[in-house]
């Protein structure tokens, strides 16, 4: 009996895709950078089916490529080109299994769309704080597998911080039920952390227990212009001291990005009459109504302006104005497409080093590629900057992208000198899995390879990714 016949015994006909027209969306990433082949796309509906599929693949020596919403930026969910693999889509496993408001936890299947989890939490008067631009299509399994970050890491942490327990199908098909809703469990190794951020190379995450938080009742949202990048550090410190843990977001928006959004994304606008070098989108939240967080923000920003740390500021007076300011943050991401080809860098350095890194990396990039447009924005509050390079005017896109390896080396060598990371929240996938060897110590690779060999001795889990 062929592998496809055996899969047909496990799955409903609509959950086993083999026709090219049906499988095509699963074989490439959304940026169209990578394309692969597969024997089939399988869409199991429960953990038992995942277990049987993985056991069958292990027996047959066929690779498994787990896939969530396929919104990743590093090609981790795209199969290799040899075709000797199954793409295992978790999209059918999209149930909210339970929610425990008293314990502030929610148990969800890996195929749940992030926005679905946010809404389920809100119905229980709770908050699931992970927030990404792709939250309407990305799925929890992918968020866990890439250790997703987003705009609220400063206060709530990334997915490593938001997960309490996991259910995982191991590479031999066995099921590890680690769905514990405990904040304290000191009974050995924290196994769930092996699978979070592993990009599907150690097993298939099928469900998770996630942390919830009190739902915000009041928020203060401000858009400010700063005189220099150095001023952002003192401003960050002042706001954190003034607000305690109420500071949720501290996002850097350079002038070039705002101008690009105004020019190419309808609905974008300039909050101030005069241009400035750089801006910050700042948000504080509180779980208490009439908490005074707006007053705290106003007083802290006024003091910062008097100290010369802020040039201009506007504070949203209602929810509509706050949404308009956050629209600008999303618009600068969309506007990147306008100039043509873009070489993206998802990097992190210690927060205190962000201004120095940005200046040095900008100068180095402009020297290495005359005319390049540096488009650096992102999560300044946690040190994660999207340091992207746009093609020079008059240069062909293919000629610019041909410089990717050379320009990556320029940027990432500087990141390394600042003791940073060349992948802060997007993962390695197949985009950075070779390049990272230049920057990670050999002993770290040795340990990672030993873990991989112990859990996946046949090497069937998402080959060609991470390692």
From TrEMBL:
GO terms for molecular function: catalytic activity; FAD binding. Its cofactor is FAD. GO terms for biological process: respiratory electron transport chain. PROSITE patterns: FAD_PCMH (PS51387). Residues 34-215 form the FAD-binding PCMH-type domain. InterPro entries: FAD-bd_oxidored_4_C (IPR004113), FAD-bd_PCMH (IPR016166), FAD-bd_PCMH-like_sf (IPR036318), FAD-bd_PCMH_sub1 (IPR016167), FAD-bd_PCMH_sub2 (IPR016169), FAD-linked_Oxase-like_C (IPR016164), FAD-oxidored/transferase_4 (IPR051264), Oxid_FAD_bind_N (IPR006094). The keyword Nucleotidyltransferase does not apply. It comes from the Bacteria. Keywords: FAD, Flavoprotein. Belongs to the FAD-binding oxidoreductase/transferase type 4 family. This is D-2-hydroxyacid dehydrogenase. It comes from Hypericibacter adhaerens.
